[in-house]
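Q: Convert this sequence to structure tokens.
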Amino acid sequence: MEVCYQLPVLPLDRPVPKHVLSRRGAISFSSSSSLFGAPDPRQLSQRRGAISYDSSDQTALYIRMLGDVRVRSQVGFEPERRSSHPYLCIDFRNLHTRLGCGSASASSAPEGRVRRLLSFQRYLHSSRLLRGIPQQIPLHILDEDYTGQARCMLEKVDNWNFDIFLFDRLTNGNSLITLTFHLLNQYGLVELFQLDMVKLWRFLVMIQEDYHSSNPYHNAIHAADVTQAMYCYMREPKLAKSLTSRDILLGLLAAATHDLDHPGVNQAFLIKADHYLATLYRHTSVLENHHWKSAVGLLRETGLFSHLPADDSLGMERELGSLILATDISRQNQYLTRFRTYLEQENLCLSNANHRHFVLQMALKCADICNPCRPWELSKKWSEKVTQEFFQQGDNEKKHKLEVSPLCDRETNTVSKIQIGFMSYVAEPLFAEWARFSDTRLSQTMLGHMGLNKASWGAIQQEQTSVSEEAEPSSNGIGAEEARAQRDDNNSTTAGGTSSKEIPQGSRES
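A:
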């Protein structure tokens, strides 16, 4: 029997009961409680954390609400919560399968998992394409070649043109692990904080595994891209001379975990579907709270900070949460207004720990939505991926008879239309203020790329509009001259009378 009650989250500064951490699996309840039935033993073996409930003090510790990575790659496992509500059985890990098609075959899932774990050399050796084909090139040379190219890319990791897609291919899909470990080591944070190398590596591997590769946009490559952008921002002169080692460590970890276990749908979808996460976090920053608590769960599961004093460890967990929660796009105006006030009053003092933390929040917000500021080829690819994820959500909303969220209907939206609106009302105001704070070559480069990208999307949109208008007269029996005259009349009517529009809260690229 599974229950649908909302369980309060144990504050991070409270000691963790021993019985809570005594198990890695499933949901455990105090035997004194008569409200809950005994959990299914089969389910206990398939869960890695989730909720432990103590009826004596009525508190719950949210350790980890993620399925085991071994279970995640299997097919047809049970939803995490059931109820009479028809949408609670939506399994978000299988959300992006093609509509109308069955689940992937059981044999394809293990194959995908093995491919991720194999090195480039062993993958080539096991590939079907090479079976029966004599080896003309020693495979170890190919491995060294790819490793060498990835190493060369890391030498230029501070370059804004850094191609994270190429880097992900060169690292055999391990871009987030490789990049984050390199940056932590480059800053000397491993030695400075005396981080155990085995625990750190396990932590990074688990982070990458907990991003859903089925998501077109919110996946481990996006997390690696945000981490690389965050590194670029922290190297800006104002920040480079002010940030402490603790700030840098938290900034990099927040970037790597800011979308951890993202289901590929936005908060509006979770609320409409009455998902347990929406109930748990009371419809407030649902995804961001989940990303944060998932990151905390990994920190505690691996014991990465277990050697630090308890106060320091809990303080770092809270600051990590504060950074991740700042990426909530629905609170964009709140942060932007505060940032403008600091800049106008010129009272932003980076020697103040609170001010430094706020600037780190703004840096992470910029890194999270910096795709429009990348060179065109990279920006275009990201734009297509995020739109694909929007449209997949819209398809699932139609499938489950839910109201389609703004920007998620593929029949009424295009990539160019979505991107122009996002740049105009979200990205441009944010990066304009960031350029006021850090008026450097990088900030001007980002604004320049965004201007060119916006113009490119405008040209594409205009071309698409022209094509659709040329096709429409023939279908409606209207002559080309009449259609052109009608279009000119509409343009003259709306010229100068365009009002600004707000981007709906349900739309986001973060």
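Confidence is low (pLDDT under 50) at residues 1-14, 16-141, 490-510.
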